[in-house]
Amino acid sequence: MWCQSCKEEYEEEDAGTCKECYEEASETEEELKREIDDLRSRLLFLRLPFPTLDAAATGHADLLLHASCCAGSGGSDSDAGRLDTPAVPAHRVILVSFPLRAFSMASRSPVFRAMLENEMEESRSGIIKIYDVTYDVLRAFVHYMYTAEVLLDEQMASDLLVLAEKYEVKHLKAYCEKFITSKVNNDNAITHYAFAHRHSAKQLLEASLLVLMDNMSTLADREEYKELVEKDPRLVVEIYEAYLNRQVNTAAGKDRSH
Amino acid sequence: MWCQSCKEEYEEEDAGTCKECYEEASETEEELKREIDDLRSRLLFLRLPFPTLDAAATGHADLLLHASCCAGSGGSDSDAGRLDTPAVPAHRVILVSFPLRAFSMASRSPVFRAMLENEMEESRSGIIKIYDVTYDVLRAFVHYMYTAEVLLDEQMASDLLVLAEKYEVKHLKAYCEKFITSKVNNDNAITHYAFAHRHSAKQLLEASLLVLMDNMSTLADREEYKELVEKDPRLVVEIYEAYLNRQVNTAAGKDRSH
């Protein structure tokens, strides 16, 4: 027989589908591709261009966000107030957004919303300081609010996840978490496991725990392990508990199958 | 043989694909579906909620659009100035939008942009009158700017196409044109043909011309035909020219094949 797709001959034991199913599948694929084209063109339409500093100067953007790396972790108060990196301009309507009925994800940032809709200092001045973040990360964060696009590496994904969690931008947090999860391996699993714990990233937590449990024999030799025992021994306990739990379940499964 | 997809038996002459191609196609389908999910969730994120009149009153929306049906086609000047339907609130940043490099479609409305970025009356007052349009159509138009979504019937699609053309919202115009094109039949082909001509809707023009050429024997009996001969005979000439052209080409094709 001749395959209608690759046009090569095949034997009966290599048969895949009947003609009807092949034709249906081809139609489905075409439909899916058309849907993708349609969704992409809507996305392009809805994407708003990231405002320039010019736009802010001429009054088109009504917010200025300032990244401040120094505050929080050890920076002095005067450091926190310094606005020495360029500002990131933005529009209130884009950052705040009101939740669309039935689309809970569509409320871009409830935190910005609370900040800008109440009579807080930020709302009056239009100037918002964002602490513990570099200019590049803040810029990528605001850019995402306009375009739903960002170029990630592991560092950027971690930094953005933290910021997205702080400002409750669920969609961006989920996007970063998915990216980091795809990068989990034996070398970084402890770091990602601890990170996932700190930032309630369930998918990443599960993925790194799985990798850790598959490599228990070398776990205790790792430098990051020793650090975690020092810093947060309860998290280490949870790894052992999960591991033991899995062993017990596997044993019970084997018993049942005998 | 047994089909791996529908699980039914089939004969050799009903064979579709080999196993390898079947498995590849299944993977492709899964990938396309994942991409659709991803695009949909980005769309949901980028969709902005349509502002309420409350938002305008409390200063969150900085524009008010007024539909005015009366002007243009016979309305008096005083009619044109009447603002008796509710206003449609909007944000400058959403209507104007700056073109994103490489995405020419992303400039939502160059016309609004020119209006609001120059020191025109509309820019100062934040009040824009939109002529020859009902409140419902204007509302759907602005809603589309926030969500890239609209519920169409043929009337709404025609009205929105006209408005989208006037304000150069290419994406919406293309969307409406596609919808109307899908509804072309022998009964409405003349109307749609003339409409497509008036509004430079090439896809719709071609689709209605094809239907007209397939039904030439009854063309001249139609009421809309007689009206078009009265109103714009050149358009009727173009139908006949296209028909003749096709006949000549078909004959030439037959000659070559003999």
TrEMBL record, chains A, B:
Pathway: Protein modification; protein ubiquitination. CDD domains: BACK, BTB_POZ_ZBTB_KLHL-like. Residues 61-154 form the BTB domain. Pfam families: BTB (PF00651). InterPro entries: BTB/POZ_dom, SKP1/BTB/POZ_sf. Gene3D superfamilies: 1.25.40.420, Potassium Channel Kv1.1, Chain A. Signal peptide: none annotated. PANTHER family: SPECKLE-TYPE POZ PROTEIN. This is BTB domain-containing protein. It comes from Eleusine coracana subsp. coracana. The gene is ga30451.
